[in-house]
Amino acid sequence: MEYNFKQYLFFFSLVFITFKSTAQFKDTAKWKALFAVGVNYPTTDGFVKGSYAQSVNFPTVNLGIQHMLTRQYGVKLDYGFNRFKNHTDTPDFKINYSRINAQFVYDPTEYLTFLPLRLRTVAHAGPGLAFVKPLGVLRDNKQTYLNINAGLELHYAINEKVAIFTDIAYLYGVTSLDDYNPELSGLGAFNGSVFNLTFGLAVSLSGCQFCD
Fold first, then answer.
1. Which single residue of 30, 57, 119, 206 could bond 84 by disulfide (Cβ 3.0 to 4.6 Å)?
2. Quick one: which of 130, 124, 133, 126 has its CA closest to 175?
3. Is the separation of the CB atoms in 40 and 57 below 8 Å?
4. Is the pTM of this model over 0.90?
5. Residue among 81, 23, 30, 41 nearest 207 (CA)
6. How far apart are CA 10 and CA 109, in angstroms?
7. pLDDT along the chain (212 residues), means of 10
């Protein structure tokens, strides 16, 4: 009898803990800080003819602050920094590409019932400004133009406050490349689009705001 009682006690304790954990991980923090690092690929059409960057460039650094208005909808302000350099087949250059974007955030996880408990998906998109600054003797070819950032994040909750995530994003440059004569005089100029792949931490800055 005592053995059976212990079994029942263990079973109901396990159910209670599982239910409580489920409620915790489904809650969305109102404020989050986002930190991520990774790699980037700038599209070849953003450079002058005969010039292009490496396929994989490091680093990419993203910093952001996110505010959820509801469980599913929110806004985010983030800053990103990318460094890329020439491919070995082209003249030497290094470029700093930085940006700031205001984005809308959508979390459809509530409808994706097949996902494991600790996983969340977050889509984001919004306009911003891109600042391109070639290094060294090419610094006169710096540019500023509009961009649109769109991406998808996958979050895995470590606990109630911290999650690790990966973000695949596309930064579309709303501009066109200037004409340079000769073309080499435009070396280091870039106003194309950039693909980013980053990995980072999402840290909750507030407690449970949307608990049932």
1. 57
2. 130
3. yes
4. no
5. 30
6. 31
7. 46 43 53 97 93 96 96 96 95 96 96 90 98 90 95 95 97 90 88 96 77 40
Query: Six-digit token pair at 138?
Result: 């090419």
**3-state SS of the chain?**
CHHHHHHHHHHHHHHHHHHHHHHHHHCCECEEEEEEEEEEEECHHHCCCCCCECCCEEEEEEEEEEEECCCCEEEEEEEEEEEEEECCCCCCCEEEEEEEEEEEEECCHHHCCCCCCCEEEEEEEEEEEEEEEECHHHHHHCEEEEEEEEEEEEEEECCCCEEEEEEEEEEEEECCCCCCCCHHHHCCCCCCCEEEEEEEEEEECCCECCCC
User: How many CB atoms neighbour CB 22 within 10 A?
Assistant: 12
Distance between CA atoms of 73 and 208, rounded to whole angstroms?
Answer: 16
Q: Report cis status (omega within 30 of 0) of the bond before 134.
A: no
